[in-house]
Amino acid sequence: MDLSLRRTGRGRASAAAAAESWFLQRGLPWVLTRRARWRRIWPRSAPALAAYATLQACVLAVYSIVGGGDIEITGTPTAAEWVVLVIVAFVLPLMALVGWLVSRLRSGRTRTVAASASVAVVACGAVIVSGPTQLLQEAVVIVAVLILTGCGAGSVFGWAVRMMLSHLATVGALAVRALPVVLLTALVFFNTYVWLMAATISGNRLGLAMAFLIAIAAAFVTSATVERVRPMLNSTTALPKDTARLADTPFSTMPDVRNCAPLKKSERLNVVFVLATSQLAQILVVAVVTTTIYLILGLIIMSPSLLNEWTHTYASTATVLGWTLPIPDSLIHMCLFLGALTFMYISARAASDAEYRSTFLDPLIDDLHTTLIARNRYRSAIATSTESE
């Protein structure tokens, strides 16, 4: 495709739309011009609006079952209570599924219809559940979705979700590298004093501690990433292999340029964010798997007497988001703490491990370098088209 004036106006617009979508799918919205980022925000917002409409439809279903009152399950749940439990259990996966299905739509017109239908569902649900006064709040949510989409947040979030799913295949390799910390945290798991901490610490303090550890880990990864990509940010000279990688993209017929405008600060931040987030997503998957393993282990070995021996309490339930779960609160705190430790250790290891960089980071850098070559071609074509007009 070509963005020059030798094409018709409709063909030029179609080529520009394809190029913009290519960058948005790779989590690089700030490569686009400001006008391009705010173009077609209604169909681009369709996945988020559809996911939110799914949430409101589930709320409406629960409201229809319980009649607007609270529900308290004591003993064996009734058929209606089982339906409510199933809806609550599957609302997040259902939202993700609906959003993904809408994101797979390629037609802008179809996406526009999906976005409009989603807004209609949200409005109907709000009126039925809370009355017309709720429409103002729902309007604020929809406007916020549109603004975030125009700013590029939707592109980055969608890319992050795809990266999270694609990195599930790397769990085995990273888990082998994380084996030393798994063995180390096993000693922490069977430490009485750590269990006392987990039993007495509040949820807010635990959240602050985890945020502190995760922030340190993110700093490790980000600083190492900046050092690694600094040459690429300063020079994006096209290489033959990069040209070959762009063969089946909207930039295949655009010429390479030698003196393209350098990356802006926002573009540099976008590049570093993409690389750092991709690595952190890999590490997060391993940390979540480790946390799940310890949670299952705790459920297997934790008896009331052992719980009292380690935590000096027989409390065997926890309240999460208003739901009472038959899991000791101290066990949840312990598993979250071990997951944060695992996350921090692997992040530090990834920042200094040459084998990890060659296996996981270098392919990401090569792909991103190709993307920046496409950025140069895109910016040059846009500038040429503007001058011609």
TrEMBL record:
The keyword Ligase does not apply. The keyword Endoplasmic reticulum does not apply. The chain crosses the membrane at residues 45-66, 82-102, 114-133, 139-161, 168-194, 206-226, 271-301, 331-348. Keywords: Membrane, Transmembrane, Transmembrane helix. This is Integral membrane protein. It comes from Mycobacterium numidiamassiliense. The lineage of its organism: Bacteria, Bacillati, Actinomycetota, Actinomycetes, Mycobacteriales.
